[in-house]
Each structure stands twice: as C-alpha cells, then as structure tokens.
Amino acid sequence: xxxxxxxxxxxxxxxxxxxxxxxxxxxxxxxxxxxxxxxxxxxxxxxxxxxxxxxxxxxxxxxxxxxxxxxxxxxxxxxxxxxxxxxxxxxxxxxxxxxxxxxxxxxxxxxxxxxxxxxxxxxxxxxxxxxxxxxxxxxxxxxxxxxxxxxxxxxxxxxxxxxxxxx
Length: 167
Prior knowledge:
Blueprint: H1 2-10, H2 28-38, H3 56-72, E1 80-89, E2 95-103, H4 109-113, H5 118-135, E3 139-147, H6 155-159
Parallel strand pairs: 2-3
Antiparallel strand pairs: 1-2
Helix pairs in contact: 3-5
C-alpha cells in the first residue's frame, strides 16, 4: 500500500500525503494541524461554547436515538423517533432532560424496554454518559416509550430540525 501511495504522489496525483494509523492514532495530529492551517480565518458563526448548529434539546434527542439504534437496530430498523419533551437547568448546575421514544406498534414497545427494562436502561445510561460529557455537567435523563402509529406524520418532530412538510 505504501508503494502505491508513493507512486501516485510521484505522478502528481496528490500534492500532500498523510499516513494515519487507526491502530495507534499516529499521523492524526499532523493532518489536523494541516487542515487547521488551510481553513480561512473568519468571524465565529456560533457562540464559542456551542458545539453544534442545532439546539441542545435536539442534539440530546439525536444522541438518545443513536444509542437506541446501536442497541436494537436489527429488531427495529428506523421505526422509532426520540423527542426531548422537557429540558430544565437545575440550580445545582445539572440538567434534567425528559424524552419520549415513539414507536409505531404495540409489539415494538417491548423491544425497546427489553427484559426487565434492561434495554431501555442501557440506552438511557449510554445517552446520559455522552450528554454528561458533552455538557460538562451532571445530566438526569428520564425516558418514556409511547406507541403512536402516526409519529412519522408529526409536524413537531420534524419542526425541531427546522423542517416543514404538508401532512
């Protein structure tokens, strides 16, 4: 592989080559430094402490949705949605987040809950861990699962992403 890279570089196919190892991460710092140097200077488009261009409550729902599909992707392919229904800043600096997972059929609810609630507990734990790291403060996450055969027609679920459509 190194020979092919060298040959293509010598032919002028590439102007720069960065060798990166997924095993030990070597080369990543060089690539990051080069990419940073290539970025044009400009004004901040978002506040410095904002890590995404979507509201935190939407990002929280997407994190939980990711964990949901990591756990039940084979049993429930794209048949669920997550909505942050409450987001409260607590006086102690922590955040209380309430979310609802919507599924289309009664038979899907037990898949998310799992035996003795273990699947939902895992989803909540993994989402809470990532949210705590992202927000740099304790997060109290409460998740409920509801059956709504028409959740895909809900304007509110799409509006949170700035999307609009005619139902």
